[in-house]
Design goal:
This protein has about 120 residues and is an alpha+beta fold. About 40% of the residues lie in helices and about 20% in strands.
Amino acid sequence: MATVASLFPSQAEASQAIDAMAGTEFASVVTDVYEGDLADDVGEVPPIGIPAGGSILGGASPRAILDNRLTGLNDEELSSYLIQSVELGRGVLVVADVEDSPAGALAAFFRNHGGRTSTER
């Protein structure tokens, strides 16, 4: 599986991209959309060093673990940037988990619809 995370400038652009997926090979892809203050969306923060999947990230802060859990990315710096952008009102984050083979195509699709996109396999 791969994770595709894309930061769109606005809710309208994120919605347009998600709506455009309906007529494509990505119609069945489930997306998570994050905007505004994420505290209500994420629930309890895992203990230090223990992300949702249970593996240990040595020295990771609770915030970094939470950011990585939301984005599905292992890159702490990128995850932090994406989440901070959302919380500061600078964008809407769309995250999708897909099979490895269409991940690149989905990333390109999101980029073509205005998203700043990262893929991790």
